[in-house]
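User: Could you check the structure of this?
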Amino acid sequence: MQAWKIVIPASKIEPVLKTHEGYEWLYVLSGRMRLVLGDHDLVLGPGEVAEFDTHVPHWFGSTGDQQAEVLSVFGGQGERMHVRAKANKQRNDQQGRPV
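Assistant: Sure, the predicted structure tokens are below.
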């Protein structure tokens, strides 16, 4: 897997959809980005995520209003990213029993 931060400059260009081997995960750090994925035309903002098989025709870029910063994780052989969350510490009541 490869990960990198992408800065997408503000510009209005016509999307050219592409396909290739792999699986991609995008997380918007700041700004707004446009993602065209198959028949879907989406605008993602800070904190939003997209995950997709790159065999689906796709393109991402600026909405044209401002630059966007995006974290991209790409698996070249189609690996999917697995996010693991650590469980909260167990809480106890006043008598020390788990709640």
